[in-house]
C-alpha cells in the first residue's frame, strides 16, 4: 500500500505537460495584457513623478525650459515626489527609450514638447511606437480644434472643408496614440474647457503636454482634479518648506545639520543647505508633509545656525543690503 502511495506522490510531483504550461502562460498574459496593465497604472496611488522635456531648441540653447520648474512646483504642492527631470532631443529612439523607462519606473509621467504641426514634432508618433499603438484621428479633438482655434492672419483663405497642406499640418496635431481596448476618456483628457488641446494619457501614466509654457501650465493645472483622489494625501495638502536664513558658512553648520537630518528623517523631514554665492547669508530648509512637526523645529534650528526664519527666498538679502547702506 505504501509503495502505491509513493507512486501516486511521484506522479503528482512531475512537471505539468507542455500544453498545461502553455495554457497557464496564456491565462497569465491575458490577465496582464498591455491594456489591463495600463488601466492599473491609471488608477494606482501616485507616489512618484517624472518630467521629460523634448526639444532640440532646449538643448541648443534657443529656448529656456521653464516647464520642468513649473512641474516641480506642481508636484511639491500636491505631495508627489518628483524623482526625475530629463531633457532629450527630437529623436525617435531617445523618446521611445525614455518614455518606456519612465512609465515602468514612475507613477505619474509628464512629457513637454514636440506635438505641433511641423516635421520635427514627432512626440505623438514616437510615443505610439514605444507602446505599440497606432495614431488615430481623434474626432472629438478635431471638433474642438475646429470650434476653438483661430486662423492666423496669413491664412485667411484656409478652409476646414478642403484638403490642403495647411489642413494636413493641423490634422497632425489631432492624430493621437490611442489604445482601442481602453476607455477613451481615460486616454484623452480635456483639462481646460476653453482649450482644444488635450492631455493624451498613454500606457496609463504618460501624459503628453505641449511645450508652449502658457499651454503647459494651464493644462497641467487642469489635471489636478483628475489626480487628487490618487494622491497619498487625498486632501491634496502637499509638501511644506520652511526657510531659515543663516549668516554662517556651510562648513560651520554642517556638523549640526548632519546630526539633525539623521534625527528627523524617520519623521519624514528633509534638511537642506543652500549657499548663496556673493551674498552674506545662506539658507537652511526643512521640508516635509507634517507642518506641525516642521514648525516644532524652527526655534531649535534658528538657534543652532544663528539665524532666523524668512518667508520668501531672498528676503534676507534685502536685510543685508540695508545694513550695507551708510
TrEMBL record:
Pfam family, one: MoCF_biosynth
InterPro entries associated with the record: FLAD1_M, MoaB/Mog-like_dom_sf, MoaB/Mog_dom
One example GO MF annotation: FAD diphosphatase activity
Single GO BP term: flavin-containing compound metabolic process
Domain of life: Eukaryota
Residue ranges of domain MoaB/Mog in the record: 50-230
Protein name as it appears in the record: MoaB/Mog domain-containing protein
